Amino acid sequence: MLTKRIIPCLDIKNGRTVKGVNFLDLKDAGDPVELAKKYSDEGADELVFLDISATEEDRKTLIDLVRKVGETINIPFTVGGGISSVNDVEILLKNGADKVSINSSAVKNPQLINDLASAFGSQCIVVAIDAKQINGNWKVHLVGGKIATEIDLFDWAKEVENRGAGEILFTSMDNDGTKNGFANEALAKLSQTINIPIIASGGAGTIQHFTDAFLVGNADAALAASVFHFQEISIQDLKKELKNNNIQIRL
What we know:
- By secondary structure, this protein is α/β, with parallel strands linked by helices.
- The protein has one domain: Aldolase class I (TIM Barrel), CATH 3.20.20.
- The protein has helices at about 30-40, 65-70, 85-95, 105-110, 110-120, 155-160, 185-195, 205-215, 225-230, 235-245, and strands at about 5-15, 15-20, 25-30, 45-50, 75-80, 100, 125-135, 135-140, 145-150, 165-170, 200, 220-225.
- Strands 1-4-5-6-7-10-11-12 form an 8-stranded parallel barrel, surrounded by 6 helices.
- Helix 1 (about 30-40) packs parallel to helix 2 (about 65-70).
- The protein starts with a strand and ends in a 7-residue tail after the last helix.
- Heterodimer of HisH and HisF.
- GO terms for molecular function: imidazoleglycerol-phosphate synthase activity; lyase activity.
- It is found in: Cytoplasm.
- IGPS catalyzes the conversion of PRFAR and glutamine to IGP, AICAR and glutamate. The HisF subunit catalyzes the cyclization activity that produces IGP and AICAR from PRFAR using the ammonia provided by the HisH subunit.
- Keywords: Amino-acid biosynthesis, Cytoplasm, Histidine biosynthesis, Lyase.
């Protein structure tokens, strides 16, 4: 059995880490470089850095900030936000990123997934999918959740896999920031639909929620933000409890 992963997420806006609820009401959560170092030191398995306003503001990712974070940590580092070309990815990888996450740009131009996987290898390409339930069906949303589409979550996940993505980061917009738990039914269905690793995102509030994401949702990794940023859960306590539940985890 593959080791499960715990991944803190830094949502970046105006150079600061922010966190909201259901993608709204963003609050300041601290300096991204300091938080990144803290999580790396505390035993996080990976770190995700999402420049959440890059697409909306039609600009590229904050390269200087990416470089500073990359120099500070010694764990795998995924960067997303404003990526729309092979050249964008090349620049990020040269400045400290180990993987990149694409979202809206992949929906608008699915061939981008093929091109990036071909240029850099599937292991380097994460496709982030933000989705919420509309009339009982999970629909993909773009531009930080602001634009709804008619695209079905599970159909899109399968296409993403077929085009060469190495991993999917699925955020339930319904669960995001609520601290009521991950969208485990959708996660379990995703894990039956695709064969690449799934990172669960949106809804972490307790250690039990992480346990459920792995045992019920069958996720390969669990990503969270506010419970780590505001010190409600420590990564070491979380990992010890997961180990006690016979979940394979790196302590």
